[in-house]
Amino acid sequence: MSTWRRLDTVVAAVALALLAALAVVLWRGDRVSVRIVRTAPAAGAEAAATAPVVIEFGQRMNTASVEDSFSIEPAVDGQFVWNANTLYFMPSQPWRVGQGYTVTLAAGAQGQLAHELLQDVSFSFEVRPAGVAFLRLAHSGYTLWAAPDLQTEPVQFSPDDGVFDFAVASDGEGLIFSVINEQSGVDLWTVSREGGDAHILLECGVDRCFAPSERAGRIAYTRVLAPMTPAEPYGPPRVWLLDLASGATVRLHADSQKIGFGPSWSPDGQRLAYFDGGNGRLVVLDMLTGEEIYIPTLAGVVGSWSPDSQYMLFFDTLLIEGKPLNQVYRANFSTHDVLPFFDPQPTDADYSGPVISPNGEWVALKVRDLDDLSSEQLWILPPDGAFAMVAVEESGYLYSRYQWRSDSQALLYHRFQLGSADSDPSLWLWERSSGASHLLARDANQPLWLP
Amino acid sequence: MKRVFNTLSILGLAVLGVALVLFLQNWMSGTVALPGQFFTFTTIFLGIFIEAAPFLLLGTLASGLVEVFFRKEAIQRIMPRNRFVGALAGGLLGFVFPVCECGVVPLTRRLFRKGMAPAMGVAFLLASPVLNPIVILSTFAAYGWGLVLWLRIGLSLAIAVSTGLIFAVEEQPERLLRPRSLSLAPIRGASLDLAVPVYPGSLGSRVRRALSIAGEEFFEMGRYLIIGSMLAAALQAVVPQGALLALGSGPLLSVLVMMLLAVLLSICSTVDAFVSLAFVGTFTTGSILSFLVFGPMVDIKNILLYMQVFRRRTVLYMVIVPALMVILATVFINLNLGI
Q1: Distance to chain A for B134, nearest Cα, Å
Q2: In this complex, do A114 and B334 lie within 8 Å of one another by their Cβ atoms?
């Protein structure tokens, strides 16, 4: 039975032929190429100064291979963030307004499974100047308004009133806002940068979803679950995540005992900070490792991220001789230490709301004389606090929501008068070059740059 | 019989050896309790066996009915004379006998005895676990009317027919089959004169005879199903699936890993499409197709069942030839089709 038969010969020949054909197929290699689903900013379009470069692939990629093949002309530093098949390049500093950039992904970038990029992919974009968005009080609540650039008149973006708060998408192409619905819950909506296509992003029913913060295709938001019966109070707030590509939303922590609100992404999208009111602390969560850093504070707001995401300036409320006093601190995520911003800590005034400029060279903060709580000053100082200059000071006015322009040369801020029935909340722009402020919009609240 | 029990003994010892290794591994780490892998093993074993047993029963029932109700010359009359047509007909016979990979073995053995040509029989054996209405519907439920479904059907048919045609060169079918497969005693006291109706008598008595044949055959083949399921379970308990999947990158390696996984998992073709959904996005379409096409043709329990019908060399060819064809086709898909 062990003699060599015709069948053995045929099987051997077929096997050899199949192996030869397989060798040819492997030798010819990949003939398909990695598919690029989309790139952003759109080729030839104007982009926000804060926009990440986005490349979505048709499959899982070898991240190191893609990052090695990635280049930008003129060269800029930045961080790579991956969300499934999508690469986000976050520039360390905002793009320069008016400058053109060309992004190239060189051939050879490899997929994890089978294919590689067979040809260079290249696209260019130019950076546009920023506009501004804000809330305006209507009959029974706030409406969302925006001006895509500072030369045009603002127009209403939200279909109706009832807007609770809003955020601007990191690519500047849209706004995300929360709106009270008919069930007394709060939904998340989105609207394009030009004000069109306003629609619900996340229906929350009787739950309340608000305080969105977007980075790398993920929105972190605060969600308060509705009680089982109307007689019961609403539950504690928790941080949730919404994936924009899939529409899936999940609680940030599986552990329902972890509560928090007001999430804020780090500029590189790797960390998420929120305030844990139950324990009186900020929680900074590393999204890659799951490591949590706790920063005790009673202020109830997340601080300002440094451009490299390595430290945060925040303020805490202390009790000095029975009186509350705000002081500024620096939390370093590399060394895990929290140090006073000023050394020694001054106790003659109240310092709060530090905001770091996009280039990391300046800090704006609010100073209030302990003897005159009805007036505030906006100070500008370097990150080491070595010296300070007063940027804005008007008797009887308070300031909030101040934030740097992408070139770190101007400050947008909200001004209102305390104790006045006709306080006229308004938006102003302070420019470093002139040291002067000018009015941008009246009857406006909670402003944000619209890059 | 002696050789069969030798094979069984070797396989039984192999399973016991694996269990012993697991126990010693645990004992050396200072625990005398049964290792966790043992419970994994029993769970997987029961899962595979319970899933496959009904289909084996279905196959043996079909085999019994064929034995009792179909005469050899009647079957030979409708067999295609042309080898290619015969192989193609064998590939599509699953639509007449919708049996999965466990049930098809006893039925094929019975059809060989009734005079089915090797090309047709091999094509039927390899194709019918996929080319039957149940599996096509389950694949549709998992993937919809997309390329995965059509490629699964097309590749399974093409590979089964091609393999069948290779076996058609063997002019003497008995050289492919174990002698016992051809001289299979239908039932005690039955006539072996195949020119006359095999089992005269009333319909009720013929059905009883068919059931009796099916019962005997079920217990005969069932032993090998148990051993095959135990082997598959033992290998899954020892070889972590995660470690295997971690290797699965690249156009060729991902295909090889998925084929190996299909062999180890030994999942019935009626449900394998749903299992493979877990790998979508992690593995290429080509490698998922290799899982869906090769798994129903060859897995651990199948090989043991094949060995009850075919000679060892035939079984070896029935594994190697489809494996090479699946590798070639799915690597080609990986590198040349953007799906």
Answers
A1: 31
A2: yes
Assign A337 to helix, strand or coil: strand
Query: Dihedral angle at the C-alpha atoms of B261, B267, B268, B273, nearest 10 degrees?
Result: -60
Q: What angle separates helix B104-113 from helix B118-127, to the nearest 10 degrees?
A: 170
| H/E element, A28 | helix A6-28
Please give, rounded to a whole number of angstroms, the shortest distance from the CA of A54 to a CA of chain B.
20
Between positions 45 and 84 of A, the ones with CB within 8 A of B are 58-60
Strand partners, A445: A135
Class of domain A36-127: mainly beta
The answer to whether A442 touches A431, Cβ cutoff 8 Å, is no
- Which segment of A122-131, A173-182, A340-349 scores lowest on mean pLDDT? A340-349
Query: Cβ–Cβ contacts within 10 Å for residue A439, how many?
Result: 11
Structural domain total, chain B: 1
Phi and psi for A282 in degrees, rounded to 5? -90, 140
3-state secondary structure of B26: helix
In chain A, the residue whose alpha carbon lies closest to the alpha carbon of B317 is A11
Min Cα separation B338/chain A (Å): 6
Cα A207 from chain centroid (whole Å): 23
pLDDT for B246 equals: 67
Decide if A114 and B251 are in contact by the 8 Å CB cutoff: yes
Task: Please give the backbone phi and psi of residue A269, each rounded to the nearest 5 degrees, phi first.
Answer: 70, 5
| Contact call for A25 and B175, based on CB within 8 A | no
pLDDT at position B112: 85
The chain A residue lying nearest B322, using CA atoms, is A15
- In chain B, positions 320-339, which contact chain A (CB-CB < 8 Å)? 320-321, 324-325, 327-328, 331-332, 334-338
pLDDT digits (tens, 9 = 90+) for A268-320: 889 999 999 999 999 999 998 999 999 999 888 999 999 999 999 999 998 88
Q: What is the pLDDT of residues A415-450, one digit of tens each?
A: 998 777 667 899 999 999 999 999 999 999 999 999
Query: Is any Cβ of chain B less than 8 angstroms from the Cβ of A12?
Result: no
| Across A162-166, A244-248, B58-62, B313-317, least confident range | B58-62
Check whether B192 has a pLDDT greater than 80: no
User: Is B122 an interface residue toward A (CB < 8 Å)?
Assistant: no
* Report field, pTM of the whole predicted structure over 0.90: no
pLDDT at res. B184: 53
Beta strands of A193-259 (E only): which ranges?
199-202, 208-215, 218-224, 237-243, 249-251
Assess: ipTM above 0.85: no
Going by pLDDT thresholds of 50, 70 and 90, the confidence category of residue B153 is: very high
Q: Find the mean pLDDT for residues A20-41.
A: 92
Average pLDDT score, chain A = 92
Question: How near does any CA of chain B get to the CA of A45, in Å?
Answer: 29
Closest CA of chain B from A9, distance in Å = 10
Strand partners, A339: A330
Residue B310: which domain range? Answer: 2-336
pLDDT of the residue at B115: 81
**Sole residue written with tokens 């309790």:** B33
Whether B31 contacts chain A with CB within 8 A = no
B312 touches chain A (CB under 8 A): no
Residue type present at position A140: S
Distance CA B54, CA A181 (A): 54
Tokens describing residue A98: 């008016």
